[in-house]
């Protein structure tokens, strides 16, 4: 009897199950009607991607088809579905980064749990709200939509993380999108940009004013110059911070928000690099002025000036390199390429090393020149028979101001590889010689006296009083080479002194023409035959005529 009752019960259950299976399943979200655009809900990946694409282009009516809205009355599903789709988009853009590559593209979903596929969790009032898609029945088939539990939590999530302006802005500002942004977001961007610029200028002025007041309390002028150097670089960090804060309140899509975040980060890096460059310039000028005022040794002052110039160039180049590296490292593509190149150095490293060999050698030569200092800024040198003053020293070349105002650009390696004359290496004092050709009859002592008179009277503004002398340098077959040696404080005065001494000595020799070089010539006649003894003059003591002497020509 019991077995018969049990058999009847199982038969009834099977009949009921068969009837339920043959009954049509109610359509999902039947109140929405057919979608205006095709929807792909066959896998967790296609559902999530389709919802985000429709929501970001402002088609919230289509995006609502990716939500499970069966708990909402059919008459309210079109309006509430579009509203919930818009709010869910804001929440996901703000609080959840969805990696589509991790979602299953198979209709069965995740084999571990084929009913659900979780996208992530969002914290809400001390708890975590799961954002998931669920596989449900639709017209005799199975589709993936955002689960009912997720859709029910959209409103609480939006109240916590949604835009604050949604309560008082007209609906127009939330209808449709332009380039993925709603009108209220474009309006917010405009207000944020203009407000950030104005506030950044105001904060910069207030900060500089406060800094200048503090700097006036000290007797050092360096802090005043540093505060003044902040004008310009200081406004960029303020603008970047205000821009990042302002855009974070607009619930921008993640790619757009990432763009503004990177822009703010880049502006901060540029501002720091800009201020470092200004700091190097101000600090170098300050130290050079202090050293020039304290040191009486002009050579030592030029030495320190050269060191500061080269070291400043090195630090500036390092600042540019580090800033560029930090700017590029925020981009994933460039960072991966850099890591790949470092990991597979090999041939690429050899090629880069060979290509940069000359540049690196030049850079090291500049650093070596600043340490050893064979030449300094302000030195007077002779390079390739050209005399000039060192005007500028960089990491790669040296600028020489030639005496006739030309500029000669010389590779910096030249001063380490080839010989050159440095007339002011240890001291600017120099000796100069003036050579003259005079006759053997010249009174050298008179020339010495004339040179003394010239340097003590005519050239006292050029002569430094150390040395003046006249010596017979060489005796040739017809003339004497006389050298007048004088001294001056620097090469410029020495050149003018030599020219003046040469001019005055030539005038002195012209006043004594017999001391000028001239050529003596002498002609002799052939001797005549003597008469016989009987025909000779009977007066043996009478003087005889000497042969005539040739003319004297100069």
Overall description:
This protein is an alpha+beta fold. It has four domains: 30-162, Nuclear Transport Factor 2, Chain: A (Roll); 175-294, no CATH class; 296-427, Roll (SH3 type barrels); 430-515, Alpha-Beta Plaits, CATH 3.30.70. 50% of the residues lie in helices and 15% in strands. It has helices at 2-22, 44-56, 60-63, 77-95, 148-152, 154-161, 183-215, 222-229, 235-248, 254-294, 298-329, 332-343, 346-355, 357-372, 414-417, 444-458, 491-510, and strands spanning 116-124, 127-138, 141-146, 380-383, 386-393, 397-402, 407-411, 421-422, 430-438, 463-475, 480-488. The strands form three sheets. The protein has a five-stranded antiparallel β-sheet. The protein has a three-stranded antiparallel β-sheet with strand order 1-2-3. Helix 10 (254-294) runs antiparallel to helix 11 (298-329). The radius of gyration is 49 Å and the shape is rod-shaped. The relative contact order is 0.04.
Compact summary:
With 554 residues, the protein is of the alpha+beta class. The chain is 50% helix and 15% strand.
Q: What's the helix count?
A: 17
Radius of gyration, in Å, reads: 49 Å
Q: What is the correct CATH architecture of the largest domain?
A: Roll
Strand composition percent: 5-15%
> H/E series, N to C?
HHHHEEEHHHHHHHHHHEEEEHEEHEEH
Subunit organisation of the chains: single chain
Overall helicity: 40-55%
User: Main sheet, how many strands, which sense, barrel?
Assistant: 5 strands, antiparallel
Q: Kindly identify the CATH topology of the largest domain.
A: Nuclear Transport Factor 2, Chain: A
Query: In total, how many domains does the architecture comprise?
Result: 4
């Amino acid at each position: 009897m019991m077995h018969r009752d049990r058999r009847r019960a199982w038969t009834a259950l099977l009949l009921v199950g068969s009837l339920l299976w043959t009954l049509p399943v109610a359509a999902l979200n039947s109140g929405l009607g057919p979608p205006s655009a095709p929807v792909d809900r066959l896998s967790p990946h296609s559902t999530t991607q389709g919802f985000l694409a429709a929501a970001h282009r402002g088609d919230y009516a289509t995006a609502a088809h990716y939500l499970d809205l069966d708990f909402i009355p059919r008459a309210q599903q079109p309006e509430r579905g579009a509203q919930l789709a818009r709010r869910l988009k804001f929440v996901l853009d703000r609080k959840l980064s969805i990696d589509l590559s991790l979602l299953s593209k198979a209709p069965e979903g995740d084999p571990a749990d084929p009913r659900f596929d979780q996208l992530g969790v969002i914290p809400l009032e001390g708890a975590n709200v799961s954002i998931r898609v669920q596989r449900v029945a639709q017209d005799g088939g199975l589709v993936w939509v955002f689960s009912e539990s997720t859709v029910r939590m959209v409103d609480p999530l939006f109240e916590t993380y949604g835009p604050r302006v949604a309560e008082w802005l007209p609906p127009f500002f939330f209808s449709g999108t332009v380039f993925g942004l709603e009108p209220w977001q474009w309006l917010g961007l405009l207000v944020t940009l203009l407000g950030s610029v104005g506030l950044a200028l105001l904060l910069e002025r207030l900060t500089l004013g406060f800094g200048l007041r503090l700097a006036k309390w000290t007797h050092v002028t360096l802090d005043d110059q540093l505060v003044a150097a902040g004008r310009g670089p200081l406004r960029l960090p303020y603008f970047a911070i205000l821009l990042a804060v302002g855009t974070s309140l607009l619930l921008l899509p993640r790619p757009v928000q990432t763009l503004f975040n990177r822009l703010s980060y880049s502006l901060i890096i540029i501002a720091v690099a800009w201020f470092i460059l200004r700091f190097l310039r101000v600090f170098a000028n300050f130290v050079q002025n202090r050293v020039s005022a304290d040191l009486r040794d002009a050579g030592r002052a030029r030495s320190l000036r050269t060191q500061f110039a080269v070291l400043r160039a090195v630090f500036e180049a390092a600042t540019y390199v580090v800033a560029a590296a930090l700017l590029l490292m925020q981009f994933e593509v460039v960072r991966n390429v850099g890591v790949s190149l470092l990991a597979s150095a090999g041939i690429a490293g050899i090629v880069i090393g060979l290509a940069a060999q000359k540049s690196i050698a030049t850079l090291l030569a500049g650093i070596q020149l600043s340490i050893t200092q064979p030449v300094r800024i302000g030195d007077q040198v002779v390079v390739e028979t050209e005399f000039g003053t060192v005007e500028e020293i960089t990491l790669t070349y040296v600028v020489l101001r030639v005496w006739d105002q030309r500029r000669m650009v010389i590779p910096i390696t030249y001063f380490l590889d080839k010989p050159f004359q440095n007339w002011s290496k240890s001291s600017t004092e120099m000796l100069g010689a003036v050579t003259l050709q005079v006759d053997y009859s010249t009174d050298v002592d008179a020339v010495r006296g004339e040179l003394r008179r010239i340097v003590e009277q005519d050239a006292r503004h050029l002569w430094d009083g150390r040395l003046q002398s006249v010596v017979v340098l060489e005796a040739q077959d017809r003339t004497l080479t006389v050298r007048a040696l004088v001294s001056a404080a620097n090469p410029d005065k020495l050149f003018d002194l030599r020219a003046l001494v040469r001019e005055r000595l030539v005038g002195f020799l012209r006043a004594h023409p017999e001391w000028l070089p001239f050529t003596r010539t002498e002609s002799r006649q052939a001797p005549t035959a003597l008469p016989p003894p009987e025909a000779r003059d009977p007066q043996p003591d009478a003087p005889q005529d000497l042969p005539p002497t040739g003319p004297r020509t100069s």
